[in-house]
Every structure is written in structure tokens, then in C-alpha cells.
């Protein structure tokens, strides 16, 4: 009886070990390799993080994550120094909803998320008013005055994730005169850039028209280089 019990236990352990090995190979090796291969063939760009490359072929960001376009800090080690927008570039949505980010200084967020403040929160109201005043001031150039009522909501509020790479066509067009002046470009040429980089609703009815800021700024850099 003892030998039979030991033998049965040994067979069960060996059967369990074989099942473990087979499942490990199938689900831990073969399946991930198959999924990776299919993704690389069918969705190569998406599978690699929707990388965006500039005219030289250098990866400059992702099509899915926003970036800031600020002037270099006077003191790179000063975490308290306020960021100053580089006004020769199209600017994205505000991204200061969750504070500073020690991991990726390109975007001032700790985690993906919104400010979680109600519409009547006094801090949020103050932020929006300050942001609107800055947008009006920054985008008013000689011969073109921006009025407060011209400022769209996405120019003064962060997105739900805080990482939105897009802005509305209205916000992009509001920046055209300032970008043209800072880069010594014709307003009509910059306005055409915005039109060329405006994406419509997905499938014609989902979401809203939008402009990817990174893609737009890459085109702006190429246009400025030609001029």
C-alpha cells in the first residue's frame, strides 16, 4: 500500500509538473511571441508607442502624450522656478493639474489624472482666470488683439488625463498670429499649417475635431527652416 501511495503521488506530481511546463511554454512564451509578431506586422506604429519622428528621423515624442514647449530654465536644478512658455511654438493645454514631475520633465505631472476640483472651486477659478489672461497677453501681437471671449476652454483647462496631446482647432487658430510673428512667417502660411493638421471626428461622428500639437510643431519647424 505504501509503495502504491508513493507511486500515485509521484505520478500526480509528474503530471502536474508537465502541465506547468506546457502551460508556461504556451502562455508565457509562444502566446506572447505570437501576439507581439501580429502587433508588429498589423499595428507596427501603435505597438511601438505611436512614436513621432521629425524630418531627420529622430524620435521626438509619442502621438498619444502631450509635451510642453518652454524656454530653458535659468537654473536647471531649481524645482521651484516657474516654467516660461517658448512662444515661437504652438502651446498645448495646461498640464499643471497634479504638480511637478521628477520622472519626465517634459510634462509637469506626477500621475495621469485631472485636478478633481469642482467648477466653483476658488483655486480652479483663479487658475482659469490667470490662464485666460496669459493666453490673451501672449497671443496679442501688433495688428491683432485677442479678446477674452475668443479664448476656448481647452486653452485654460487641463484634460481629464492631463496628458492630452491635442488642442482644439479654435485654440490652434488663436495662436497663429503670435507664432507667425515670432518665426517671421506669413500668417496665411501658418494658418494653412493648422488647417492641414486638423483631424476631423473619428469615423465622421465620434469626438471633436482636433490638432496634434507635436505634429503641428514639427511642420512649423520645417516651414521655418525653409523660410
Question: What would you note in describing this structure?
Answer:
The chain has 2 domains: 2-46; 54-226, no CATH class. It has 7 helices and 5 strands; from the N terminus they run H-H-E-E-H-E-H-H-H-E-E-H. The radius of gyration is 26 Å and the shape is elongated. 44% of the residues lie in helices and 6% in strands. The strands form 2 sheets. The chain has a 3-stranded antiparallel beta sheet. A two-stranded antiparallel ribbon has the order 1-2. It has helices spanning 2-42, 44-47, 122-139, 169-174, 176-182, 187-196, 213-226, and strands spanning 51-53, 59-62, 166-167, 198-199, 210-212.
**What is the CA-CA span between the terminal residues?**
93 Å
Walk across the major sheet and give the strand order.
3-5-4
**How many H/I helices?**
7
The averaged pLDDT comes out at 85
Helix content: 40-55%
Pairing-aware structural class of the strands and helices? mainly alpha
Strand portion: 5-15%
Q: How would you sum up the major sheet?
A: 3 strands, antiparallel
Structural shape: elongated
Uncertain segments: 97-105
Domains (count): 2
Calculate Rg over CA atoms.
26 Å
**Beta strands, count:** 5
Note the run of SSEs as H and E: HHEEHEHHHEEH
